[in-house]
Amino acid sequence: MTSAKNLLFVDDEDSIRLTLTPILKKHGFEVTAVANVSDALAQIDLSKYDVLVSDLNIEKPGDGFAVIAAMKVRQPRCLNIILTASPDFDTAQQAIRLSVADYFIKPVNVEELLSTIANAGSRKSTESRSQGSRCRTEGTSPQ
Questions:
Q1: Which of 17, 103, 131, 140 is the most exposed place for a label (fewest CB within 10 A)?
Q2: Three-state SS across 18-54?
């Protein structure tokens, strides 16, 4: 299991929220599921999240990027993942520019989603340890 525990899930489709939320909970996440952008932005201010899984088109096309951008500003360590039923090249490029961890097409393969979260979580902890080592090494003078 990954070190990520708190997950914010944003999707306007009731059926997806009702299906994916219990699956994520079963895999050890504390899931907060919301159906719109304003509730997502409020949650970002209320709680700390390790993972954001957001639909791309919540209330209007591309507004999932507003949620991701807000998360990146307020909680820069949060892992951001997009779900979409309407993939296209432009939104995939925008996701890359926002450093989104992954871009999944609905219906999402749950095992792939969990694997992305686990792999990104382990990469982040490895990067933190290596940056800490590098900082300590650079600060010492050779004897």
A1: 140
A2: HHHHHHHHHCCCEEEEECCHHHHHHHHHHCCCCEEEE
